[in-house]
Design goal:
This protein is 19% helix and 42% strand. With 507 residues, it is an alpha+beta fold. The longest helix is centred in the N-terminal third of the chain and has 20 residues.
C-alpha cells in the first residue's frame, strides 16, 4: 500500500505540467465548473469567437489516463484560452480516483498575459490560483484549505502566458523556421520563466493508420520540453511531453471514455527510476552512493551535511547530458549535541503557511499534548510526533493539499502526511521543512518519487512521516524542497537513463 501512495506525488506534478503546457487547446463543456475571473473578462464573454475547439485523449506510455478539452477564442481586446482536463486512475478493482485541472488564460491583442485562473481538484480538496497583470505589477491569489494568500511581483518587459506563442502561431499561420522567445508566467511553478518555441519543417505523422502532414513545434518552458505536431490550419494532432506522456486528438466520445484507464500499480512500475541492481532491505541502509545517468543540465541536486554531490560529468556523445554521483549518509542522532525546545533558529521553518497551518488551534493542541510527554527533549518530541501520526492518521490514496485537510480526513498520501507532520513540529517549536525526491521502498525494484520532511535539532535530519522513520533511511535522496509549487522542479530529473548503485551499507 505504501508503494501506491508514492505514485500520487509524481502523477500530480506531471499532469499539472502537461495540462498547463497544452492548455492552448482550451476547454468548455457541461462538466466544467464556472470560474470567476476579472470582471472585465466576464463582461467580454459574449464577444467570444472560437477559432480552436479540440478534444484529446491523455496517455502515459500508451496507456489511457484521461482527457483534455480546450478552446481558443478571439474576444474584445484580445484572446482567451480555456481548458479542462481529467485524469482517472484505478486504485482497486472497480474503484477509480479522479483529478481535474481547469484553467482560463486571457491575453491582449499582442498576446501579452492580462489574467488567468487555475484550479486543481483532487477528490474533495481544491487549490486555486488566480492572477492579473496591471502595468508592471502581477498580483496572484492562492486559495486552499480555507485560507487565502495574496502576493505581488514587479515585472519588467513583456510577460506572456504559456500559450501565447501557440496562439500567435495558429492565428498568424504555421511557418517553418519561426522562433519565439520571451518570459511567461508558469502556473505549476508559480513563477516567471523563460520560454522558447521553434517551428520545424513540414513532415508526416501516422495516427491510427493515417499519414498526416504536420509541422513539429518544439517548446521549452522552465526546463520542461514538449513537442506538438500541428496541421497547417493550426489543429494539434499530437503532443509529446517528458517521460512518455502524450495527448492525441480525438472526438469527444472517444476522448472522454475512461472505462479502461490504467491501474495505479501499473503506473508505479512505469514511472519508477530504474537501477542497475536492486537494493535489499532499503529501510536498514545507513549509506548509499548512486550515480544518476543521462540528466539534463537543469537538474541540480541539493546538498546537505548528509547528502553530498561527489562528481558531475558530461557524457560524451549524449547531447549535453550529464552523470551526477551523490552519496547519502544517514545521520546518527547521538553523535552531536541536540538542541532543547523551543528552538529559535530558522524562523521561516517555524512560521505557519497556507499549506502548513501550525497556528491552527487543533494542531497547536496536538503539539502541546505531545510536549506534555516529551518535555523540552527535541528528539523525544519528534519521535512522539511520529507515534501520534501513526496512531491517528491512516495511509490512503487521498490527496490533501494542507495539513488541516489531512487532520480533518484522518488519512492521506505522502505529501499529506508531510504537511501535517511539519505543522505539528512547527507548533512545537521544531523547525521543519518539506522535501521531495526519490526513495527506494521495501519490495521495490527501483527508486520512486516521494515527499518527506527535515527537522532541525542542531543539524538538519531527514524524517519520513509516511514510513515513520527518524532518521530516514539512506535511500531518501532530496531533489527539491518547498511547497507544491516549488516541488515541480523534480520534473528536471524525470528525463534520465537510470541510476547506478555504487555503494550500499547497513545499520
Amino acid at each position: 500500500m505504501k508503494n501506491l501512495l508514492i505514485y500520487k506525488k509524481i502523477l500530480l506534478l506531471m499532469v499539472t505540467c502537461v495540462f498547463i503546457l497544452s492548455c492552448s487547446k482550451g476547454s468548455n463543456n457541461e462538466s466544467v465548473e464556472p470560474i470567476q475571473t476579472k470582471s472585465e473578462h466576464n463582461e467580454q464573454s459574449s464577444d467570444l469567437k472560437i477559432f480552436s475547439d479540440q478534444w484529446f485523449g491523455f496517455y502515459f506510455k500508451g496507456n489511457k489516463l484521461g482527457y483534455l478539452h480546450s478552446i481558443g477564442a478571439r474576444m474584445s481586446g484580445g484572446y482567451m484560452c480555456k481548458s479542462y482536463g481529467v485524469v482517472s486512475m484505478q486504485t482497486e478493482p472497480g474503484i477509480s480516483q479522479q483529478t481535474s485541472i481547469s484553467e482560463q488564460v486571457y491575453m491582449d491583442n499582442n498576446y501579452n498575459l492580462t489574467g488567468f485562473t487555475y484550479v486543481l481538484n483532487a477528490g474533495a480538496n481544491r487549490i486555486s490560483l488566480t492572477g492579473s497583470v496591471d502595468g508592471k505589477t502581477m498580483q496572484t491569489v492562492i486559495e486552499t484549505g480555507g485560507k487565502t494568500e495574496v502576493s505581488r511581483e514587479d515585472i519588467s518587459g513583456p510577460l506572456f502566458s504559456s500559450v501565447s506563442f501557440k496562439i500567435k502561431s495558429i492565428r498568424e499561420g504555421i511557418k517553418p523556421g519561426t522562433k519565439y522567445d520571451g518570459n511567461v508566467y508558469f502556473q505549476p511553478m508559480k513563477k516567471i520563466a523563460a520560454m522558447s518555441v521553434r517551428v520545424g519543417d513540414e513532415g508526416e505523422i501516422e495516427i491510427s493508420g493515417k499519414k498526416l502532414k504536420v509541422f513539429p513545434v518544439y517548446e521549452e518552458i522552465g526546463g520542461f520540453k514538449s513537442t506538438s505536431w500541428v496541421s497547417a490550419n493550426g489543429d494539434i494532432i499530437k503532443e509529446e511531453s517528458f517521460e512518455g506522456f502524450e495527448l492525441i486528438a480525438d472526438n469527444e466520445n472517444n476522448a472522454k471514455r475512461l472505462d479502461s484507464t490504467m491501474h495505479a500499480g501499473q503506473f508505479l512500475k512505469l514511472a519508477q527510476v530504474k537501477t542497475d541492481k536492486e537494493i535489499e532491505e532499503p529501510s536498514r541502509t545507513n549509506t548509499i552512493k548512486i550515480q544518476f545517468c543521462g540528466l539534463g543540465n537543469k537538474a541540480k541536486i541539493p546538498e546537505r551535511d548528509y547528502q553530498t554531490v561527489s562528481s558531475e560529468e558530461y557524457e560524451s556523445g549524449s547531447g549535453g547530458k550529464k552523470s551526477v554521483t551523490v552519496e547519502i549518509v544517514k545521520p546518527k542522532v547521538g553523535t552531536f549535541k541536540t538542541l532543547v525546545l523551543p528552538i529559535t533558529f530558522y524562523q521561516q521553518y517555524l512560521k505557519p503557511t497556507q499549506f502548513i497551518q501550525s497556528d491552527n488551534e487543533k494542531i497547536k493542541k496536538i503539539a502541546a499534548d505531545i510536549l506534555g510527554k516529551s518535555g523540552n527533549d527535541s528528539v523525544r518530541f519528534i519521535r512522539s510526533g511520529l507515534e501520534w501520526q501513526k496512531d491517528n492518521i491512516g495511509t490512503s490514496m487521498t490527496e490533501n493539499f494542507t495539513a488541516l485537510d489531512t487532520l480533518k480526513s484522518g488519512e492521506g498520501e505522502c505529501q499529506s502526511n508531510a504537511n501535517l507532520f511539519s505543522a505539528i513540529m512547527r507548533a512545537g517549536s521544531v523547525p521543519c521543512r518539506i522535501v521531495t525526491g526519490i526513495v527506494y521502498p521495501e519490495e521495490g525494484s527501483g527508486f520512486m518519487y516521494h515527499a518527506w520532511c527535515e527537522v532541525y535539532i542542531g543539524k538538519w535530519i531527514a524524517v519520513d512521516p509516511t514510513f515513520k522513520q527518524f532518521p530516514a533511511d539512506a535511500t531518501h535522496v532530496i531533489l527539491a524542497d518547498g511547497d507544491i509549487f516549488s516541488q515541480i522542479g523534480i520534473i528536471n530529473f524525470i528525463d534520465n537513463s537510470g541510476i547506478k548503485v555504487l555503494k550500499v551499507s547497513y545499520d
